[in-house]
Write a structure and sequence with these properties.
The structure is a homodimer. The first copy, chain A, is α+β, with helices and mostly antiparallel strands. Chain A binds a DNA duplex through helix 3.
DNA sequence: TTTAGCACTCATACTACCTGAGTGCTAAAG
DNA sequence: CTTTAGCACTCAGGTAGTATGAGTGCTAAA
C-alpha cells in the first residue's frame, strides 16, 4: 500500500485524534490541526480516497470518518511512532515490579493485575502451556504416624505438594520403600504414559502399602494435568465501562461476559513467534473480540516456560502507549525471572 | 412488629412478586392474586398502612409499591418459607462438588465460582483469617548439587514449598545440618517472634551456610504472612448485568468496580458467629453495597480454619432459594473438608 | 490541483402530547 | 368499623414532530 506523504499525514492525524476522543473526525478538524496548510475541501477529497482504499469508514453519511481495522493496521505497521515512556512511567512500572512481586503469590495473576492498572484496560495473563511435562522426582515426608506430605517436582522445575492423612498407621521404612518405588516407576513419564497397567504392577510391588500408590500417583497426575492445561486470569474488566464505546450495555455485556467467564483458556491469542503481537478487530479469532483489539506480550518465565500478558480494549486503543508499556513490563518480568531470583520456577501461593 | 394475618399475606405477596419481576406491584395485581378475597381498594388501604410502618416504599406517586430494606428484613425473619431444593438442584450441587473439587487447584476460588454458577449472582470467597500461625516443621530436599526445595508445614497443616537455586554448591550434609538447625530454632514461632536477633544467632550457628538461613526463613515468613492475610476472590460479576436493576451503567459501574478490584479483603462481611448471614441493603457497611444484599455462608475447612462464600445481588434477591443453595453447598464443602479427603488442609496449586 | 460555495443527509436534542397504571380520598354499602 | 365503588389526580414512558448543526459530495471557479 503506497500513499502520498500527505495522505499519510492525514490518516495519522485522523487516527490519533480518534484514539483520543472516540469521536468521528471531520475534514475541518484536520484542516485546522497545525501543520496542515490546505483547506477542508482538499482534506475531504483525500479522505474520500482513503475511504475507497478501505482505510477509513463513515459511521453514517453526515458524520466524520473513523479508522477501519485496516486503517489501524496500516497505522500500527507504518505510521506509528515509538512511544517514549516518561521517567515517571518507567519508575511506576519498576516500582510495581518491585512492590508487587515481593508479596506476589501468583505471579501470572499479579502480572495481569499490574498491566491492567498500568493501562486502564482489562488485562489477561496466562502461562504458555508446555506439553508433555513429566515428574522428575517424588519425595514423601513423614509428618506423623498417620500423615505424610507428597512433594513432586516436574522436569520443568515446578514443585507441588499435598498433605495426606491416613486411617491407618505407617512406618518410616514403608514410606522409604514407597518413595523409592515411585521414583523408579513413575518418573520421566508424561501424563498419557501413566497407564493402569503400570499402576497395577507398582501396586503389586508395593505389598501392603499398595493403596498409597494410587493416592500419590493420582496426585502426580493432577499436577501434570494442571500444568498442561493453562488457566487464564483476567483483571480490571471494570475498566471497560469507563470507555465511551462501552457505555451502552448491549455493547459491554457480551465482552464483559466473555472476559469474566474463566475456565477455558485458548480464548486468548498467544503470540507463538514474536515477543509482542497486536490483533486488531476482525483479526481476532474469537467472535466476542471482533470489535476489540488485543495487544499481547510474552516474557520468559525460565525453565522453558513463557508467560503471556495482554490487554483488551476498543480498536481505537492507544497502540503506541500500550505497546511501550507492555513491552517494558514484559522485559522487566523476563529479567526478574531470568535472574532466578524470587519466584523462580517454583510455586508458593494459595 | 405485630401485623394482622392479612397484612402479612399482602406483604409477602408483594415481596415475592417483586422478587420475581423487579417491577413495582400495584394493588390490583395483589387483589387478583389467588387467595385474596378482597377488593383492590382494601389492599390499597392495607398497603398504605404497611408503607407508614416503613415496610414498603413508592418509587414515585403513581407506581406500585416496592419493599423497603426493612420490609425485606421482616420477610426474611418471619415470612419466608424454607425453600426446598429440588432433586435436580441438589444433584447439580453434588455434581459440582465432585467435578470441580477434583481438578481444583484453589479451593476457595473454585468454591466461589461454583456459587456464582449456582445462583447466577456474583459471588465472593475468602478464608477466614487465622492469626498466629506458626511453622511446625521444615524440610529441605536436595535436588541437585546447587538446588534444593524448601517445604514448610504450619501448625494448621498447610504445606508450601519453593525451589531454590544457588550460585554455589552444597553438600547433603550441610543441608541436613541446616534442616536440623531450622527445625530447632524457628518452629512454633508466630510471625512477630521471628526477630532479627534470632536470625543472627541462627546464622552464626550455621557456619558457612549462614546465607541460606535467611533465604529459608524469609520464605517461611512469607508463608505465614500470606496465611494471616486473607485474599478475596470474586467471580461471575458479569451476572450483574443480566439484572434489570443494573441495566443502566450508572448503577452498575460502581458496584462492578467495587467487586472487581481485588486486593483488600475485609470489604466483604464475614459471619462471626452464625453459619449463615443475610445483610440487606443499608445493613451493609461498605458504601458500594448499600443498595445490595449480601448472603454469606461459612464452612469448616478443617484445621481450625473456616471458609467463607457469599453472594451479592440486588435487595430483591430470592433469599429463600439463595440461602437454601448456599447452605447446602456450605454443608457439602464442610463435609468434603471434614473427611480430610481430597484437598485436606494442604495446598497444591500453581 | 486546490478552493469556495451550496444543497443534502442524518444523528441528536428538545418539545409537546398522550397513555395508562396506580394512587388517595370520599361517600355509600355491609 | 370495615369494605367497596367511583373519581380526580399524578407521573413515568412512549411517540411524533421539529430544529440544530456537523459533516459530506459535487460543481465550478481560481
Amino acid at each position: 500500500m503506497d500513499l502520498t506523504e500527505r495522505k499519510k499525514r492525514i490518516l495519522r492525524a485522523i487516527i490519533e485524534s480518534y484514539i483520543q476522543s472516540a469521536e468521528p473526525v471531520g475534514s475541518k478538524a484536520i484542516a485546522s490541526s497545525i501543520g496542515m496548510e490546505v483547506s477542508s475541501a482538499t482534506i475531504r477529497n483525500e479522505m474520500a480516497d482513503l475511504e475507497s482504499l478501505g482505510l477509513l469508514e463513515k459511521p453514517h453519511t453526515s458524520a466524520g470518518r473513523i479508522p477501519s481495522p485496516k486503517g489501524y493496521r496500516f497505522y500500527v505497521n507504518e505510521l506509528m511512532e515509538e512511544h517514549k515512556l516518561s521517567l515517571q512511567e518507567t519508575e511506576r512500572i519498576n516500582q510495581a515490579l518491585r512492590l508487587k512481586m515481593q508479596e506476589l503469590d501468583r505471579v501470572l495473576d499479579q502480572a495481569g493485575r499490574v498491566v491492567s492498572q498500568l493501562t486502564n484496560y482489562p488485562a489477561f495473563a496466562l502461562s504458555s502451556g508446555m506439553s508433555r511435562v513429566t515428574i522428575r522426582r517424588f519425595d514423601l515426608l513423614m509428618v506423623e504416624h498417620n500423615a505424610f506430605i507428597i512433594v513432586v517436582m516436574t522436569d520443568t522445575n515446578v514443585v507441588r505438594n499435598r498433605l495426606i492423612r491416613l486411617p491407618t498407621d505407617l512406618t518410616e521404612a514403608q514410606l522409604q520403600m514407597l518413595n523409592t518405588l515411585l521414583n523408579a516407576t513413575f518418573t520421566g513419564l508424561p501424563l498419557d504414559e501413566i497407564t493402569p497397567e503400570l499402576m497395577r504392577v507398582a501396586q503389586h510391588a508395593a505389598g501392603e502399602a499398595y493403596g498409597l500408590i494410587s493416592l500419590v500417583v493420582s496426585f502426580a497426575m493432577e499436577v501434570l494435568e494442571s500444568l498442561e492445561q493453562r488457566t487464564v486470569h483476567t483483571s480490571g474488566i471494570a475498566h471497560l465501562l469507563e470507555l465511551p464505546e462501552y457505555r451502552s450495555l448491549e455493547r459491554a455485556q457480551p465482552l464483559l461476559s466473555y472476559l469474566s467467564e474463566d475456565a477455558d483458556p485458548g480464548r486468548f491469542p498467544v503470540p507463538k513467534d514474536a515477543a509482542m503481537k497486536i490483533l486488531i478487530g476482525p483479526e481476532n479469532v474469537a467472535d466476542a473480540l471482533k470489535d476489540t483489539s488485543v495487544v499481547v506480550a510474552s516474557y520468559d518465565i525460565g525453565e522453558g516456560m513463557r508467560g503471556v500478558i495482554g490487554v483488551v480494549g476498543p480498536t481505537r486503543m492507544d497502540y503506541a502507549k500500550i505497546t511501550a508499556r507492555l513491552s517494558y513490563l514484559a522485559e522487566g518480568l523476563s529479567r526478574l525471572f531470568g535472574h532466578g531470583e524470587l519466584p523462580g520456577g517454583s510455586d508458593d501461593h494459595k
